[in-house]
Amino acid sequence: MRLKMMASNIVVLLAALLILFPSAALAHSKLDSAVPGDGETVNVSPDKITMTFNTKIEKLSKFKLLNEAAEEVKTGKSAVDGDTMSGDLPEKLANGSYTVKWTIMGADGHTISGDYSFTVDAPEEAPATATPEATPVPTADPTETPADVPTTKPAEPDQAANSGSTSTTQNSDMALGPILVVAVVITVIALVAAILISRRRKG
Predict the structure, then answer these.
(1) Model pTM greater than 0.70?
(2) CB neighbours of 13 closer than 8 A, spacing ≥ 6?
(3) 189 — phi, psi (to 5°)?
(4) How confident is the model at residue 161 (pLDDT cuts 50, 70, 90)?
(5) Beta strand 79-81 with 96-105: parallel, antiparallel or unpaired?
(6) I need a surface site. Which of 9, 69, 90, 116 has the fewest CB within 10 A?
(7) DSSP calls for 112-165
(8) Mapped to the 3 state alphabet, what secondary structure does 98-123 carry?
């Protein structure tokens, strides 16, 4: 009888503790969900990491991101809002596996740590194809004259000779004209003088 009474008292005491201190039933906060998710493979580098826990967490909670070589990757400052913690990723993640290590302070004041992993497997970008340079087409200089096309047509020899002889004949005619006129005038004067002299003699 005494053992039964003691067992009953213990059960009642435990029930009273759970009622008086409900936080004891939630002794530990835990990760409820995440983006990217635990074990997820994404084909695009994420720009933010977001974690949601099963209880409200305190502002002092934080996380860090490690690559496959256990090197820390730069992230933005952790932001806490109720049961959610998030942080930006200012740089694009290379393909590979990453581990998120988080440390939170739950509503019960306990500090809890944990981690999870995800993988980035983005398609490789094709290298840019160089555009071939166009071969310049030589342009003719408008000031140049082809060697085989004469700029002026030379005068034919016969025409040159004829023009020369014609000009010589014209010059000769022009020189003889005045002489003939003077000779005619002198002849006329001489005849007139002879006639006058002969008439005077007869008279």
Answers:
(1) no
(2) none
(3) -60, -40
(4) very low
(5) unpaired
(6) 69
(7) EEEEEEEEE-PPPPPPPPPPPPPPPPP---TT---TTS-SSPPPPHHHHHHHHH
(8) EEEEEEEEECCCCEEEEEEEEEECCC
